[in-house]
Amino acid sequence: MSSTFVGARVRAVRAVADEVRQVELVPDDGARAYPPGSHLDLALEIDGLPVVRSYSVVGAAPEDGAYRIAVKLLPDSRGGSRRVHGLAAGDRLELRHPTSHFELDPRRPGYLLVAGGIGITPLVGMAEVLARQQDRTGAPVRLAYAGRRRAGMPFVDHLRGVLGDAVVTAAGENGERLDLAAEISGLHPDGEVYVCGPPRLTDAVRACWAEQGRPARRLRTETFGTAGRHPTEAFDVEVRDHGLTVHVPRDRTLLAALHDAGVEMVWDCLRGECGLCTVGVLGVVGKAPVVDHRDVFLDAAEQDESTRLCACVSRAVGGLLTIDTGFRP
Amino acid sequence: MTATPSPLRAAPETFARREWPRATWYAAAYDVEVGAHLLPRTVAGASLVLFRTPSGEARALENACWHRLLPLSEGKLLGDEVMCGYHGLRYDADGRCTFMPSQTTVNPSARVRSYPVAERHRFVWVWTGDPADADPATIPDLHWNDDPAWAGDGRLIHVDCNYKLIVDNLMDLTHETFVHGGSIGHRSVAESPFEVTHGKGTVTVTRWMIDVEAPPFWARQLEWRGATPGHVDRWQIIHFTPPGTIAIDVGVAPTGTGAPEGDRSQGVNGFVLNTMTPESPTSTHYFWAFARNYALGDQRITTLLRDGVSGVFAEDEEVLAAQQRAIDAHPDKEFYNLNIDGGAMWARRMIDLMLAAEDDSYAEAGARAERDIAEHHRADPGDGAEREVARARAEAERARSGS
Fold this sequence. Notes:
heterodimer; A: alpha/beta; Elongation Factor Tu (Ef-tu), domain 3; Rossmann fold; Ubiquitin-like (UB roll); six-stranded antiparallel beta sheet; five-stranded parallel beta sheet; 7 helices; 19% helix; B: alpha+beta; Rieske Iron-sulfur Protein; Naphthalene 1,2-dioxygenase Alpha Subunit, Chain A, domain 1; four-stranded antiparallel beta sheet; 18 strands; 27% helix; 28% strand
């Protein structure tokens, strides 16, 4: 997170699927090579407030000096997608050059890429890189890509061009479903799966993966912490050690709202990975389940217990949450 | 479309460049150096830790813990996992973190960079470019180092100079006369003409010395081989592969036994195998070996030759380090080039091409080099050796009749 923002120009914006726009961004100091699975950060202004949003970079390399991102309009989100959909060619904004938290290990004997909806974006570059090195390595690559509606799934034709028959798609509207168990059992024992999609998909892959006795470290997921198992809603927390009640609007994180309210916090990753910003949960008032854990720091049992939550990504749904930030005046 | 002629320059700016290409294989260690322990080594500016997994596979990871950057080489190798010696974070052989203290999960972002590794010709090679491009087929050919038809051994020396200075040194062996007078040097090396040829990604320097005295290093080997003492025909055929690998076909055969025509059976043949891995702009891991094609089972000869060549290279080491110090002390000075530097100039040109492919700021130098090669391209290896032999013969003839 240390690199600084640079100015960039929007070169083109076009629809690549229903409600999905691809934006080409030309940084002032030139686009750089990046590892597959990379994302870039955009500095946006939403409702007059500066915010940073991360988007996966589409494709294995910049195209004619531009980074490409593809963004789905999510009415349920914190406003980033709305803002990006408002961009037009010639607009200026600031970005941070791509970095990767979702790195591809190029030496596995086989690969399965699993995408759900707009989660396809980081996997496009991976598919391209893996297809390119396939002549040499012979490592099979399959891509399983699910979406609600076929018309809302970008890059299908491109991916067929890259991977041919190794692409399977499933559109929920047609009653199609990915056969995850078959896909996983067809993968080389030392192969890896790369998953990007909503938590429900990730959960399903994870369950299947564990059922087939595969090692957890060979299942790779991208974590932005932006999607949960519940819709994103505003909620309130009682910060008992500060004697405060803080309102968390739909487009702010708990961490940001606490920070705004003057509650001192420490944090690092802002993706629900490091666990530095966890707060204790003292009690909940309302109907269960109330905590929508969107982190990967707490394990499944800890999330079930819900005695802590990661303030940078996790949220409450309905009811009032009472938390402990560790402040002992 | 018309080609714009580029202004000719006296010399390319290559000698000022200290950089190394990234998209290439570098020898990181001798096979025997890498085992079930953590070996720190800096390769092309990257600090690595090398080790072998229980199945014997060599691995190379970035030598800095993801968490607080303590060198992993200060930690422990536990099976195929590396444990940091500070807080116990563990990494698998691919560099992914598998354990974090005081939590049941592992941050999925936690990893150290893993470098593609391939083992070939007794070296553990590391690829420092984009891992997806790491094709072991592009590892330089040093097969004499483990070919059953050859026997030998070598060493790794750490030289305090830029790797290109060693390339220069090996691409022109006239220095043998002056630096290695007691072993392989002979005035005939500095007096004999030579031929430089180049092809796509190769440079060859051929020098034949016909009807000359064998220097001590070679006289001894002829003796071991049981050949009759007397004048010899001596050859040095230097093969360069960028950025830093040089295999030198060397040998002597009694004059008149047909070596220049291709029958080396009465002589002794060796290959001086060299591969230079930049450590920093002013230091180099210099891997070398000497392989011979006779008395294959005689370890005594292997050891004697290795120690002999060690002595020779110690002389180079001193010169090269002094040269680097002089370069650093005279930052405003440039090199001038002699006729003898042709091989080195072409070698540096090949390195420039690799750099140009990776970095736009080299594009101009790269385009120029590309053009030069296209214009002056000559098949390699070609008839250079034959022409060379004829020339050296005539030279020897002239010397004999003249004196």
